[in-house]
Amino acid sequence: MHDEIRELVDDLWSVPRFVVARRGFRPNVDCIRSDDPPALHVVVELPGIEPASIKVVAADRVLVVAGERCRPQLHGRYQQMELEYGPFQRRISLNEPVDTAAATARYEQGLLTVVLPIAAKAPKRERVRISIGART
User: Fold this and answer.
1) Angle at 17 between CA 5 and CA 94, to 5 degrees
2) Where do the DSSP E strands lie in the chain?
3) pTM of the model as a whole
4) What's the Cα-to-Cα distance from 113 to each of 40, 60, 102, rounded to whole Å?
5) At 90, is the secondary structure helix, strand, or coil?
6) CA 19 to CA 17: how far, in whole Å?
7) What average pLDDT values come out for the chain (136 residues) when binned by 10 residues?
8) Are 25 and 85 in contact (CB under 8 A)?
9) Are 128 and 102 in contact, with CB atoms under 8 Å apart?
10) Quick one: pLDDT at residue 19?
C-alpha cells in the first residue's frame, strides 16, 4: 500500500500544472508481463542520458532506475524552456518474485529495457546491480 501511495503522489507531480514547481526529471515507465517465457519487461524513457550514468538495481520486488539528465552547456538566454533536467530515481513495484540473477538490460534509442524473468520460487532477499548492455 505504501508503494501505491508513493506512485500516486509521483503521478500527481507529473500533471502539467505542477511541473513548474517540481525540480528534476521523472522518466515515464511501462511494465509488461510476458507469458512465454514468463518475465516482466520494464521500459523506461531516458532520452539524452549516457548509458554509463544509469544505475539499475533489483531488490525484493522492486526495481530502481536512477541517474541524472544534465542540461547542455549552451550560452545565451532561454526564449522557451520545457525540457526537464536533473537527477531522477524511479522505483517500480514488481507484482511477482523475479530471478534477479538472470535479469538483463539494454539501452537503445533513449529507451532502457530491463527484462526480469519470473522466479520459479521466491528468491533470497538481496540487492542485485544490473549492468546495461548494448544491442548487438
Assistant:
1) 30
2) 29-35, 38-45, 55-59, 62-69, 86-93, 104-108, 111-117, 127-129, 132-133
3) 0.73
4) 10, 19, 14
5) strand
6) 6
7) 71 54 79 95 95 90 93 86 90 93 94 94 69 70
8) yes
9) no
10) 46
